[in-house]
Amino acid sequence: MLIQAMGCHCHTHYLNLNITPHLLYRRIHNTRSKQRRFSLSSSSLNDQQTVGITKADDAYMNVKLKTLGDCKLGVSIYPDFEYNADGGAGSGTATRDGCKLVFVNFDVEKLYIPPLSTLTTKLLGLPLPPFLKIDIVPDSLHGNIDQQSGKVDLKLRAKFWFSVGRLYKAPPLEVETVLTSEESKGKMRGGKGERLDEQGRCRLVGVATVEPVDDFFMDAFLGLPTECLASLNANLSLN
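Predicted structure:
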């Protein structure tokens, strides 16, 4: 079989390829498939999606989170807790999609959010009693950052552990919400966030439904099921 070699304008050459058209197609297809491509596995707010990108468009980075003071947490019909989350921190991976969005995924093993305690939290202007404590244990935190507009959406899954000294420890309150720089609104609760500024500061808010935990005291005290609101003052950086 004779195939004209392409790419030369001065002379015409002919190559005698002793292969069938089927084998020639397979060789060309296999050569193209060897081009290095990367698969970005990103978590959207509701579904997992896979985006194929070439190496030239890849930008693998680290993301860091710092939680700051002037935060709030509210649950049910009770007044909001004034919460100082200063000292909280986390890190993870970030991948740019070649445009404006950066997909981030935090390592929960390195993610620390300070507990609500007498040192960090006030209710109606008074510190929490020393024996009351609510630990926050994240299960996952991921989402996206729009570097052009400063919009942030992070999906958080976490457990809130309420305890009264050594006398009582309730089953965990499981919370799942989207912490957003935009507005978050439920039936009972709502809040408005703030987009990233030039220093990387933002306010992220999220409303979640808290289901009953089959604990008589906790279910009755909080009126479960009910809603809770988180308003987190934070700093986000990419490098």
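Summary: The radius of gyration is 26 Å.
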